[in-house]
Amino acid sequence: MREASFSTLPMIAKLRRLQMLSVGIALSVTLLFSGVSQFIIEREQLVQESYSLAEMLGFNASVALSFQDKKIAQDILNALRGRDDVLAAQLFTNTGNLFAQYAKQPQTPDTPPLTLQNPTHHLDLHQLTLTHPIKVGNETIATLLLVIDLHPLWTHLLWQLFGISLVAFVAYCISFIYGRRLAAQIVAPLQNLSDVVTSVSCEKNYHLRANGENDTEIGKLVHSFNCMIEQIEQHEEELQKQNDLLETEVERRTTQLRIAMEEAQAANKAKSQFLATMSHEIRTPMNGIIGMSDLLCNTPLNQEQKEFSAIISTSAQALLAIINDILDFSKIEAGQLELEHTDFSLPTLLENCADVVANKAYEKSLSLMTYIDPLIPTKLSGDQVRLRQILLNFLSNAVKFTANGSIIARATLINKNADRVRVRIEVSDSGIGISPATQQKLFQPFSQADSSTTRKYGGTGLGLSIAKKLTELMNGKIGVQSQEGQGSTFWIEIPLKIITQQHVFPIEESQGKRIFVFGKDDGNHDIYLAYLSSWGVLINTSNNIYEMLFLLREARSLEQQYDGVLITELEPKELVEAVNAVRNDFTCEQLPIVTCQDVIDSALKQKLFASGVSSVLTKPVKQSSLFNAMIAIFHTHSPVIPTEKSPTDEASVENNETFQPLILLVEDNVINQLVAKTILTKLGYQVHVAHDGKEAVDILEQQEFAAVLMDYQMPVMDGLEATRAIRLREQERGRKKAVIIAMTANAMKGDKEDCLEAGMDDYIAKPIDAESLAATLKKWL
């Protein structure tokens, strides 16, 4: 605390304290030294004087001692009354007898003498005791003892110390006054320097200079400080010049950057407009091609015409997929792609994706199968459209690059908490595989394994790049594991929100039932076992016909017969043999049988049914299909998992009704008019056509419609302007709001939002899909 407080004191106060401390210490040491030395001198002088007095008294008393004259000896001692410092004197004979004595005070005690050959003395704070032998010749005849009072000595010494202290105090005061003046002279230039430093620091005024320049150390310090300030002032001026130049340069560059940014924004806007225009211009004829080819396929055609129509439809769909990839890639690169979050079933999504590529897999005789971990919750939330896009890319590539063998899509649970799960979805194939060098560039845009792969299999090389971008937008990971000639596994890991964890299957209907699973242990054998176990089914397995029959008979004899037999993973010939073996055994002839076959084979299916098979499942076998097949053999009247009807199926039912809602179709392209009108007519609607937005506004003034299908881009008045005009007239005249659904070939960010903001109720993209159109109309009508 003291050091801290001293360090915070001003310099002049420090100098004063140092001066007072140093002078005080010097004077104190001087005073102490003077007092001690004076005491020593006075003491030695007193001892010498006392010895001299004792010697004189001994000499005078030696005659009286020789003649044993006590009176004379007493008179000699009584002569000491003239001295105030002598307290007592005593003469002792050699025999120790008191011969004579003197005492200043009657109470002075007798002190036995010491027989000494030499004089001695003893000092304490109050008195000096001295013994002196009295000799005649060389013979000691008596001893004299003197007691001297020291109080006079102390009094004299204190008076001397007082005088010295007084002189020291006067010297201390003179030194303090003079030192104060010297300290002020030393501190003054330093204080001036400190004030200048403070002003320069606070005010940034580098024109100030400190005073007190001379040849002393402080003068040199002031001179150095002034030189430093002068240099700083010069640097500040140069810095200000550079700053002015920099500000000018920054302003110039900012102007250039602003111009460049405006040009970039204009270019980006032009790019977006170009993409929107190209999307509309390409999708519009594509809508006509796809729509008309689909309609053509539904007309009476000969075999050759059907093949040509199918080729047209397939080629158009392939071209549309390429266009979609390019537009998606452009939107991702421009940062215009946003994810949506909707509730969906992951098993349904994965199985539907497998259904899309199933026909191509059947054409190549590939075994296609899906597996969904039973621990994955039933309903999840995420962007199912983009997830479907990724999975279809994986599955399509697997089918494309696999000549023979199998493909399996798996969804497994990685981890789970209260409201979120992380799932891994992978697609494995037994195709051509990918080299390690190629895997490094696999997810880059416009990249494929090599040029020969591109020529043989086709494709833009955008699919996996888009899948990677979409996965990253979902906060997930994507990767590949592959070896050349041994197939590949593409996988993603993504987080999804849990909506409901309730099991979709009523497993109480299958709990405790017994199923015998027959077939090879390879392939997808484990998937069937996993599904059955998750439903509480008791399982026994075998891959030998004779062993199977023996176990079936044994179970019947023990009254533990099985509820059914599931036969999987066999070639068609082996499958028929296994079914016949069970049916021809008299103990098992009534046992229900469910079979699974790799590809669609109508002849084999009819043959199996004729052999008494209860259900024939075709890969990819869905969980719901397998569960329903099992339940069907467990119970006569059993709950099954409902299969959703497609919108076109529901619409076809409505075709039989007499009421046909009137739809206003607003479309400027004649081909698209024909496609949309034909689809709507087949869906059971009456259609009235308007060729532009203004005509639609005028028609709605005269007639009401169940719904309006409004094109986005049209001459005279586009769909947005027409919708605003319709909504404004409805508001002014208090009319019922018409259902307006946008139809647009645009696929850019903000198109849907622009349509809804203009007052439209819904949005469908071109090319128009019959099922999507039917579902949208059913939603509003």
In short:
The protein is an alpha/beta fold. The chain is built from 22 helices and 22 strands.
SSE layout and pairings?
Blueprint: H1 2-7, H2 11-66, H3 70-78, E1 86-93, E2 98-103, E3 120-123, E4 127-136, E5 139-149, H4 151-203, H5 217-297, H6 303-333, E6 342-344, H7 346-363, E7 367-372, E8 379-382, H8 384-400, E9 406-416, E10 420-429, H9 436-439, H10 451-457, H11 463-473, E11 477-482, E12 488-500, E13 514-519, H12 525-534, E14 538-542, H13 545-557, E15 564-568, H14 572-584, E16 593-597, H15 602-610, E17 615-618, H16 623-634, H17 647-654, E18 662-666, H18 670-682, E19 686-690, H19 693-702, E20 707-711, H20 719-733, E21 740-744, H21 751-758, E22 762-765, H22 770-780
Parallel strand pairs: 7-9, 13-14, 13-15, 15-16, 16-17, 18-19, 18-20, 20-21, 21-22
Antiparallel strand pairs: 1-2, 1-5, 3-4, 4-5, 6-8, 8-12, 9-10, 10-12, 11-12
Helix pairs in contact: 2-3, 2-4, 4-5, 5-6, 5-18, 6-11, 7-8, 8-11, 19-20
Structure description:
There is one protein chain. The chain is α/β, with parallel strands linked by helices and 781 residues long. It contains 22 helices and 22 strands. The strands form 4 sheets. Strands 6, 7, 8, 9, 10, 11 and 12 form a 7-stranded mixed beta sheet that branches. α18 links the parallel β18 and β19. α2 runs antiparallel to α3, α5 packs antiparallel against α6 and α19 packs parallel to α20. The longest helix has 81 residues. The radius of gyration is 60 Å and the shape is elongated.
